[in-house]
Design a protein that fits this description.
alpha+beta, 2 domains, 18% helix, elongated
Length: 128
Amino acid sequence: MDDILSTPRRLRCTRCATDVIGRQWPGQDIGWGLCQSCIEPCKQHAGSEEEFRVTHGVQGVHFDIQSITPSDNEASEREWLEDSRDGRFSRVAVGREDSVWVCNACGQDDADPWEYGCEHCDEKADAY
């Protein structure tokens, strides 16, 4: 998969467990990434830029992504529950017993990964 073209998704910081938007890096377990406040401590711990890159990926591509919309920031504070089949949509909790599907391309709520995808940005459904 081409890392630059893959859609940013909700991940959990491997150091502090904060929800964060990023792209999956093969050096991390699936669903884990790196938040902005943990970049410097992880760089210091790695010892070299190369070791840091091997472990965490490329800044601006896999973590510390600057093109996050405000709705992405709001959605990333909610508890992640699951991803759709290809990871283009995430289901997040919006209360004790309610949840919504969020489009990972634009961050909008009320996406439908099975039928219409995202009406806001025209992201296609997962075609289950």
